[in-house]
Write a structure and sequence with these properties.
single chain, 449 residues, alpha/beta, Pectate Lyase C-like, ten-stranded parallel β-sheet, nine-stranded parallel β-sheet, 31 strands, 27% strand, disordered N terminus
Length: 449
């Protein structure tokens, strides 16, 4: 592990003291003051100038522990209220553009969305609802699709934008295909916003969100990602280091928190389309379109890595489409709210897990394949029934088509979900409209997206 300079050790010690004082004066932040807390974390993170991976890891551990919600069922109820409110407005005809999807209804009706891009940062729901990305920073316009030098990236490239220390809202001057030579290692407080242009990250390395916080990725095509590595890569203006081989994930979330992945189209990568591991938490994955891939989404590092018990992830309004095989998602240890998604294709199973994850499936549409041996939505991986019978896996209001069936377990239909069931997710019959615009949107200046 790299040595940490004395002056940065002092800063780190100061941060510990601040967090201890916070605890003495009232404990860790509750749900009512998380926005204030997020702002304070942003200021603390900006005060640290050493961005080596070792130092990032220590910061991330503190941030991730504070991001954990002590009552995840309350966040589930918040999601349900948001859906209910949006759908009721739709029924009453207040806004012709309202769909019942609370994320989209928050910003898509605005004809001036291009002038009000940062409005998006107020629209997340679920466990990643406090991810503000680069909301408090300036705009950075990517003008150059090149990635010739991962150690010394040119100004105007996406790599140059994402490694900066300050918050940035990153947009693109024109349509472009970005083929990355090495992993795109992001820094904290960044938004990648592809609205209004057609941006592909493809045919090379893809996105790594490692030991950082507050990232939004919206409106990007991510596909044909390949393993890369055994090379030097820059992670901040002041640090670059040796990277071993990467797996070839579309988006790799590693020891990170407050992440929102929304309205992207992902397909055909060497490993996962989205993986979240190593105690990552406070994540929302919403409105994405997944196609043509084997192992779609891994959430949890390994059965033995118990730090993933802090993992809390919302998976909402996504379309799991043609050519998918398994892991939509495959979960370990944490709490996973799977709500109002459209599953129109799988070849092995849709939702799997091991190591006692809590899975709360509400209002999804599951269309089973023709294969009579692949009708089950769920799969307990390498675990005997005597053990998994205790896991809390719940299905409420799911639409099960073509012989699909969900195998519940544990207290999934009873007491442990009492808070969550106070308001139901929207009926699965509405999933078609809730997910009809999943994936990258076609947004044009001067009209709603």
């Amino acid at each position: 592990m790299a040595k940490i300079p004395l002056r940065h050790f002092a800063l780190f010690t100061l941060l510990i003291c601040v967090l201890f004082i916070d605890f003495v004066n009232g404990g860790l932040p509750n749900d009512d003051d998380e926005l204030v807390h997020s702002k304070r974390i942003e200021e603390q993170v900006k005060s640290f100038k050493n961005s080596s991976m070792a130092f990032r890891e220590e910061k991330a551990k503190l941030q991730n522990e504070q991001a954990v919600t002590k009552q995840p069922e309350e966040i589930v109820s918040m999601v349900e209220r948001s859906i209910s409110n949006s759908t009721e407005r739709r029924k009453l005809g207040y806004f012709s553009c309202v769909t019942g999807n609370p994320i989209d209804d928050c910003w898509r009706c605005d004809r001036n969305w291009q002038k009000n891009r940062k409005r998006l940062a107020d629209c997340a729901i679920g466990f990643g609802r406090n991810a503000i990305g680069g909301r408090n920073g300036r705009f950075y316009v990517v003008t150059d699709p090149g990635d010739d030098d991962p150690v010394n990236p040119k100004p105007g490239t996406l790599r140059h934008a994402v490694i900066q220390e300050e918050p940035l809202w990153i947009v693109f001057k024109r349509d472009m295909v970005i083929t990355l030579k090495e992993e795109l290692i992001m820094n904290s407080f960044k938004t990648i916003d592809g609205r209004g242009v057609n941006v592909h990250i493809a045919n090379g390395a893809c996105i790594t969100i490692q030991y950082i916080t507050n990232v939004i990725i919206h409106g990007i095509h991510i596909h044909d990602c390949k393993p890369t590595g055994n090379a030097m890569v820059r992670s901040s203006p002041t640090h670059y280091g040796w990277r071993t081989m990467a797996d070839g994930d579309g988006i790799s979330i590693f020891g990170a928190s407050h992440i929102w992945i929304d309205h992207n189209s992902l397909s055909n990568c060497a490993d996962g389309l989205i993986d979240a591991v190593m105690a990552s938490t406070a994540i929302t994955i919403s409105n994405n379109y997944f196609t043509h891939h084997n192992e779609v989404m891994l959430l949890g590092h390994s059965d033995s890595y118990t730090m993933d018990k802090i993992m809390q992830i919302t998976i909402a309004y996504n379309h799991f489409g043609e050519g998918l095989i398994q892991r939509m998602p495959r979960c370990r240890h944490g709490y996973f709210h799977v709500v109002n998604n459209d599953y129109t294709h799988w070849e092995m199973y849709a939702i799997g897990g091991s190591a006692d994850p809590t899975i709360n499936s509400q209002g999804n549409r599951y269309l089973a394949p023709l294969n009579p041996f692949a009708k089950e939505v769920t799969k307990r991986v390498d675990t005997n029934e005597g053990e998994w019978k205790q896991w809390n896996w719940r299905s409420e209001g799911d639409l099960l088509l073509n012989g699909a069936f969900f195998t519940p377990s544990g207290a999934g239909a009873a007491a442990s979900y009492a808070r969550a069931s106070s308001l139901a997710a929207k009926p699965s019959t509405l999933v078609g409209s809730l997910t009809s615009n999943a994936g990258v949107l076609s947004c044009r200046r001067g009209r709603p997206c």
